[in-house]
What we know:
The structure holds two protein chains of two kinds. Chain A is an alpha/beta fold. Chain A has helices spanning 14-29, 52-55, 67-76, 93-100, 141-152, 167-175; strands spanning 2-8, 33-39, 79-87, 90-91, 111-112, 118-119, 129-135, 158-163. In chain B, helix 1 (21-33) crosses helix 6 (153-175). Classes of the chains: A alpha/beta, B alpha/beta.
Amino acid sequence: MKAFLLSDGEFDTKQFQSLHALVERVLADKGFSLTEKRLRPRELKCCMGCFGCWVKTPGECVIKDAMADINRETVQSDVVIYLVPVVFGQYSANMKNAIDRWIPNILPFFRTKPNGDTTHPARYASNPQYVMIGYADDLTEADKQLFWDITNGHRENGEVLFYEDDDDAMAAALAAIDMQKTGDRL
Amino acid sequence: MSAEKQVTIIAGSPKAPGTAVSDKLSQIAAETLGDTQLRAQVFGVGECMKENTTEKAYAAMAQSDAVIVVFPLYVFCLPGITMRFLQDYLAYHKVHAAGKKQMVYSVINCGFPEPEINEEASRVVARFAAAIGAQYGHGILIGSGGMIGMSVSPAEKLRDLYRAALRDVQAEIKAGKAPTKQSVCLETKFPRCLYFLFGHMGWRRWIRRNGKSGKDLYARPYQPV
């Protein structure tokens, strides 16, 4: 089974290093082969909103940088774990660039979810589970709620966790997740 | 007579200058807010980064009575480029804060019909405002944002609603206080099923203009073999 780990090198704090080591250990215990990408500050260009990934090179971003490998690894993994610095209750700028440029993996069409919200269908019939782990030195309850709402409020194939320096709690939470492909749910 | 107040409008789209809905919304905001008592100035995030003039925009923000952040919704929150701009402004603010009492607003547009889907992004801007010690007014949330520049009746109505919402913001900035208020949601009265239909037809037309077929929209380049 394949796991892909994406993290933000701009926030290479002690807290991040502890979390990173912990996640590596849990994935090894679960028997995953791990591929990792740690984003260097400003390494990724931002999404230009051109929709080229839908109408020029469908399924692939037109910007040539590390994002092609990130999207390939994402699609071909069973689980993708994002270690996300939480800034203003959202993903840090680096991580947000990677998340914005994940959209080649969805189709341009609209569909209505059971709750009435609009969304886009998945491009692939089989998609990885995601696990978003938010961390910050001064994580507030408001930040956590907002981060959860942005992420799990709109997606169906993942989990949101927060790392607050409790290794045992995080290890137990990760161990409890059945990390495998989630079909066409996004 | 009170002194002139300054409003800085941040156009947070990564698209080429003048082509984005957020640019249009920023331009309307500057025209509607600006008068003898308010001076409104627009800075494009993409242009600032490309032309290395971000510090100039930051200096204007630090001196402003109000900052309005205008951006498109990308994957249910702020685009990476807007996030970079605000994240770096926080570092700038820690050094250069002018100690002014400031208000922050957001104008958020999305391609989906329902404006409420922008709500979390408005909360992110509220968290930004709190981080720089400013008061957050509210968000103006716009659904079917792509229609804003069109010359059709529902789009004209949407622009009128937007201008009316901006006049409330203008009054609050002039008064120097923003009452606690829920987001203002603006949407067209265009039928949802037709919006979807025209959208889907548009994608098929667009890909054919690029020399591909409608089936190519479904390509799976990273499908594991």
